[in-house]
Structures are given as structure tokens and as C-alpha cells.
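At this stage, I wrote out one protein's amino acid sequence and its C-alpha cells, and that material follows here:
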Amino acid sequence: MVVSADQSDPIVIPAGETRTVTLVIDRSGFPAADPVYLRSVTKDAIDGDPALFARTEFTVVRGSTQPVTAETTTVSVTVPTGTPARRYDATIGIRRVASKYASTLGTITIHVDVP
């Protein structure tokens, strides 16, 4: 299932399921053709895996390590089995390809509601 997300709206994902989420990248202030990467906000790779963008006890966000030149991209969001019902947030950094800082352009936070 692909969920198109306005990052301010929560995405409902039951425990034990994964959703593909379309994220909108705000490209105002720099050329639309400039490629960006999605990255962890804390370090370049979580547990040595650069495609693992965010992981908490109750959410896992994965995606491509390829540069993004479009205004949208997709990630997969997994909620492990046994996750308690409530809202969880997962934050991803956006970085220009030529930059060494994870959040040069900011962050995207995905709000996940677990029923």
C-alpha cells in the first residue's frame, strides 16, 4: 500500500505492518535539479546501514541511498509486532549531495499512529 503523505498528517499503520510512504521534499531556495539524499539525522548510517534512515523502539524507516532530484520520494515505514497503540514520530534528515551535514536542508518528520 502506498500512502501519499503531507508530513503534518499522521499515517495509520497497525502493529506488524509496513507501508510505503510518499514524502514531499520542499525544494524552495535551491535549484530543483540539485540532488539531495535522505539520511539519518544522527549519523550517516545506523548500524552501518545507510538505507536505514530512522529507527526507534517502535518505528523503522528505510529507503533508497540514491540521490533524489524529484519533489517526492518514497520510504518504507515498519511498525513491529507488539507495538503499543499511540503516536510515534520518525525524523529523517535531508542533505544536499555536496554537503557533509545531515540536515543541511532540514528534516522530514513522519507521524505514525498505531491503532
Remarks:
- The mean pLDDT is 82.
- Strands lie at 2-4, 11-12, 17-24, 36-40, 52-55, 60-63, 72-79, 86-96, 106-114.
